[in-house]
What we know:
Layout: E1 3-9, H1 13-16, H2 30-40, E2 45-51, E3 89-95, E4 110-111, H3 118-124, E5 127-135, H4 137-150, E6 154-163, H5 171-181, E7 185-186
Parallel strand pairs: 1-2, 1-5, 2-3, 5-6, 6-7
Antiparallel strand pairs: 3-4
This protein binds pyrazine-2-carboxylic acid (VGL) and zinc ion (ZN).
Amino acid sequence: xxxxxxxxxxxxxxFADPKGALYVKGGEKLIKKIENLIKNGPYxxxxxxxxxxxxxxxxxxxxxxxxxxxxVQYSWGAEFxxxxxxxxIVVDIVKGDNPDRDDYSxxxxxxxxxxxxLKYILREYGITSVDVVGLALDxxxxxxxIDAVKSGFKTRVLLKYTKAVNLKPGDEQRAIEEIKKNGVKxx
Length: 187
Ligand code: VGL
Ligand code: ZN
C-alpha cells in the first residue's frame, strides 16, 4: 500500500492570528484541530508549507500587487501559528520567495534552504495520497490541492480543517467547485 501525507498549508500568524496582516476569519479555530491532526492523524509524513516573501514582493499593494504586506521572511507574521509536535518526518516547504512572482501552490515552492521540490520529496518517501488542510481555501489550499492531483497523487481537501478569505462573496463555493472539477475529493 502506498503511503499517505498530510499537507498543512500556510498556518502562519499573518493568516491564522486575528492580529495578522491577512487574517482569514476563523483561522485561529483551526490551530488546535490541525495540531491534533498532525499529532494523531493516520499519516506517514507531515508537510508544512509557508508563505515566505521578501520585503519587495510583487504581491504587496505597495509594490503594485493586491495584498497587504504579509509573511515577510523572518517576521512575526511569517512564523508558524501551530506547534508541530510529532515524531514523524516533517518536510518544511517555503514559497513566494521570488520577489517577481507569486506562488500560491506548495508544489511551486522548495524545501527551506534547499532546492528540492515537493513532488519529488513525496515520491522519494513513497507517498501516493495526500490530504490538504490549512489557509486559505480559495488561494493556497486550492492551488496546492490541484497541483497535488496533477502531480499524480490521490488528493483530498478536508473542509473542516480549512477556511476561505472570501474577498468576494461566493469565493469559497467557487473554490470548492474548481477543486472538485480537477479531480480532488472534498471531505
Ligand atoms: C495566500 C494570499 C496571499 C494563502 C498567500 O496562503 O492562501 N493568500 N498569499
Ligand atoms: Zn502571500
